[in-house]
TrEMBL record, chain A:
One of its GO terms (molecular function) is pyruvate synthase activity. It comes from the Bacteria. Keywords: Oxidoreductase, Pyruvate. Residues 14-237 form the Pyruvate flavodoxin/ferredoxin oxidoreductase pyrimidine binding domain. This is Pyruvate synthase subunit PorA. Belongs to the pyruvate:ferredoxin/flavodoxin oxidoreductase family. It comes from Pelotomaculum schinkii.
From TrEMBL, chain B:
This is Pyruvate synthase subunit PorD. Coiled coil: none annotated. Gene3D superfamilies: 3.30.70.20. It holds the Pfam family Fer4_7. InterPro entries: 4Fe4S_Fe-S-bd, 4Fe4S_Fe_S_CS, PorD_KorD. Residues 39-68, 69-98 form the 4Fe-4S ferredoxin-type domain. Its cofactor is [4Fe-4S] cluster. PANTHER family: PYRUVATE SYNTHASE SUBUNIT PORD. The gene is porD. Keywords: 4Fe-4S, Iron, Iron-sulfur, Metal-binding, Pyruvate, Repeat. It comes from the Bacteria. GO terms for molecular function: 4 iron, 4 sulfur cluster binding; metal ion binding; oxidoreductase activity, acting on the aldehyde or oxo group of donors, iron-sulfur protein as acceptor.
Amino acid sequence: MSNRLTGNEAVAYAMKQVNPDVMGAFPITPSTEIPEYFASYVANGEVNTEYVTVESEHSSMSVCLAAQAAGARSVCATSSCGLALMYELLYVAASCRLPVTLACVNRALSGPININNDHSDSMGARDTGWIQIYAENNQEAYDNFLMAMPIGETPSVRLPVMTCMDGFITSHAVENIDLLETDVVRKFIGEYNPENYLLKKENPLAVGPYDVSPYYMEHKVQEAEAMKAAKARILEVAAEFANISGRRYGLFEEYRMEDAQLALVLIGSSAGTAKAAVDKLREDGIKAGLVKIRVFRPFPGEELALALANTRAVAVMDKSEGFSANGGPLFAETRSALYDLKERPYLIDIVYGLGGRDIKVEDFEKVFGRLADIAVTGETGPVYTHMGQRSKEEIA
Amino acid sequence: MICAKDINERTPWQDLTPGGEIYEPGTARAFNTGAWRTHTPVFHPETCKHCMLCVPFCPDNAIPVKDGKRLDFNYMHCKGCGICENVCPFPAITMVSGGVAR
Ligand code: SF4
Ligand code: SF4
């Protein structure tokens, strides 16, 4: 079933097909349309979701995790400052092992105030214990959302899942996408059957206890192990999803990496533009390729190291500033992942696209130009730079 | 299923419940939380009609009952919230400030 939808519509439609028990709903640009579309499904009786309008994102996440603890399947959507207002509860959801599903429509964080896309919101939540899966386009936004529940709800995982897409670029652009039939979706995600939950009358339950120091660390180890276990489950669910959709997903996507010597590592919608640059360079005989990270949490470190093992020079493209003074978050993860390789490619970090700053095919060509120089000279030059800002000196 | 009594400070992480969930009620009995109190309820047995309203309202199981009679407070568990005083229809409970009954 083909359709023309925006990313927000696609995710709202996925939610409708899932027919979750509870939605915590609060509007924030650019994810506002998701609860908006979903509200009409509720009003028209197309779903029987308990639609809870709240006064803040802090409350919408509270609603979701309380509902999930009670034994219900809950969803919500947010962006930017909304996600930041949820941070406290993101930890609670993950540490109480409540597999809530959240659609994050990535947007810059203040200040100065900006409503456009970058990844600073979800990157700020990268260590909260949530699984994070990023989409390049509307199709992936839809597909990722459908895969979220079978991943997060698995007993060996039991972690909340955040599916991310780029604000306005993916959330508001209309694309042709393939939708699955609703009965196929229902069968794929199955019933939510937690072993224990608050409303199970045979077995009263206390959730979210005061975890004193003799126990807290053990629970964090459990959580860390669950995150490791999620990797295999993500791949398993992707394989099952390929059976019903014909679309295959891994922890990341390798584009023309077979014999690539120069490579990019990036996340999200810029991958489309970067692929065009790779194709152009390949026509000129330049061995360019790219790795698009799909799953950022758990981070596919070993797999990424293998994918990059035979390259000469790699540019990690961060669409958020980490203010670590040592490069962005994707760079930190990638560089750490490559450390165990016997022979490592040269690695640079380029922070780009902040607050909706455009990136074009030519920009990626420039990055590859820099990589080509590095491959030849062995001199990386400045390792951590920004691209796309007005500047007295041009680096990237 | 893992019960609270099987969990202690030597339990390895593999044997703890996910997220520290507790699969049974009434485990507050195992903890002496009375030391936190800044207000204290005082029981006046002469006025008490043993209607038992206060008992289920106490969030900390601090009001013992024996043979259909409510007994004096169990201050090892009473946190001094004052709910019991509020629900008592007779003036059989009064709150005093401070952590001990005077
Ligand atoms: S003050 Fe609160 S905790 Fe103490 S006995 Fe009364 S209801 Fe229970
Ligand atoms: S509510 Fe008051 S009268 Fe009733 S049992 Fe408790 S103390 Fe006694």
